[in-house]
Every structure is written in C-alpha cells, then in structure tokens.
Write a structure and sequence with these properties.
Elements lengths: L2 H46 L13 H14 L21 E4 L4 E3 L14 E4 L2 H6 L3 E2 L6
Length: 144
C-alpha cells in the first residue's frame, strides 16, 4: 500500500463517521458554546458589581443596649402616655425587665422583641412583680 491509498482510506473513514454522528457532534459543540458564553457573561456581570467590604463590629451586650435606651428615655424626659398605673422607672437605671407603653407585655432586655421597643416608648421594671403590678404580662417568647 502506498501513501495515497492510506490517506484515502482515512478520509473515507472520517466521511463515514461524520455522516453517522453529524447531529450529535453539532449538538455537543452547541451545548459547549452556550455554556462557555454563559459563563463569560456571568464573569463580566460579576466584575461590574461594586462590592464593598462587609465589616462586622462587636455589638454591646443586650443589657447595655437596654440601659442605653433607658438613659435616652430619661434624658428625653419621656413620661407615660398610658393611664397612671404605668410609670417608668427609667430614671433609676435598674432595668431587669422592659415593656412598651404601647403594649401590655414585658420582656427581658436581651429578648429580640425588647430590642424593637423605641426609646420613647420604653418602660423599665426592677423586677417581675413590678411589671405584673402595673398590668403587664410576661411575653411567652422571652419569659418562661
């Protein structure tokens, strides 16, 4: 066999392969092209985003936050808008339980609901008895 005969046989095998698998080859090339283009578009879009560094600062303890609310309330001279049985003990700074003027529930200062009380609505209690005597009930999520 000479060189040209071998060459023709290889070309004939290639032609037969192409006729048999043409659709599959084109489909595979199409899928790969779409995947590469999609990836590149995603990379380009990601580079456009102006991401800032996330900074997490140490948060003071929840009791300190509640005390800060109490002090802010006393500085503002906040007085109770409810009837006379709801009085704020904010000026004493002994805030073991907190409540809101707009609610009848009391919470521990570290409770997630206590953190949502605005300073001007904050009512401070020295103990649970004081809260109960003023008509407040313990929040089921905070007081167990």
């Amino acid at each position: 066999m000479n060189m040209s005969t071998r060459k023709w046989k290889k070309l004939e095998k290639l032609r037969i392969f192409w006729e048999k698998y043409e659709r599959r080859v084109v489909l595979a090339i199409g899928f790969i092209s779409v995947a590469v283009i999609s990836f590149e578009v995603g990379v380009l879009q990601g580079n456009k985003l102006d991401q800032k560094t996330l900074v997490i600062e140490k948060v003071p303890t929840e009791i300190a936050l509640a005390s800060a609310k109490v002090q802010e309330a006393s500085v503002l001279g906040v007085e109770s808008k409810k009837d006379s049985k709801v009085e704020s003990t904010a000026s004493t700074g002994e805030c073991l339980f907190v409540g809101s003027k707009n609610s009848n529930k009391y919470h521990k200062p570290d409770c997630r609901w206590a953190k949502n009380i605005k300073a001007e609505n904050l009512v401070c209690f020295k103990n649970e008895e004081e809260a109960k005597n003023k008509g407040y009930v313990g929040d089921k999520g905070c007081i167990k």
